[in-house]
Design goal:
Elements: H1 16-37, H2 45-78, H3 90-110, H4 114-141
Length: 144
């Protein structure tokens, strides 16, 4: 097995067309979501913008963190020297991702405002899109 990471060693979900599909679907989802919620005059669209921006920031951080973890440990995992769970930073990354994506799941129980709830959905679209952008940028730097 090679000593350097190459794109062909990555799994299917780490291929460039898959990243592009996820990015396009998250942007399209956000556009359709804003179009749908803008029909209700009670919803303040600023919350949607705030949620999308926060999701982009936190999702990009998660994507960069994941790409560093894969850069450092993926070949060791393929060689079965370690598991991903044993890689440096994997447990903290998993905790961060679970918290970042589970907060929107509990928001409907805590928030009674329609505007804020609209922002929560936009947060998810922003998080998923930005995470995939960060990973796409990393994969593009890996030699074929």
């Amino acid at each position: 097995m090679q000593e350097k990471l190459s794109r062909r060693l990555l799994p299917f979900y780490m291929k460039l067309p898959v990243f592009w599909a996820f990015i396009i679907l998250s942007v399209l989802g956000q556009l359709l979501w804003v179009a749908a919620i803008s029909q209700d005059i009670r919803i303040d669209l600023r919350w949607s913008s705030f949620g999308f921006g926060l999701g982009i920031a936190l999702g990009f951080m998660q994507g960069k963190w994941t790409s560093r973890l894969w850069q450092q440990s993926y070949l060791k995992v393929l060689k079965r020297q370690i598991t991903f769970w044993d890689a440096k930073g994997a447990k903290l990354l998993t905790f961060y991702t679970c918290v970042a994506l589970s907060v929107p799941a509990f928001c409907p129980f805590l928030i009674r405002s329609l505007s804020t709830l609209a922002g929560v959905q936009s947060y998810v679209f922003g998080f998923i899109g930005a995470m995939n952008v960060a990973l796409l940028l990393w994969v593009r730097r890996i030699p074929k």
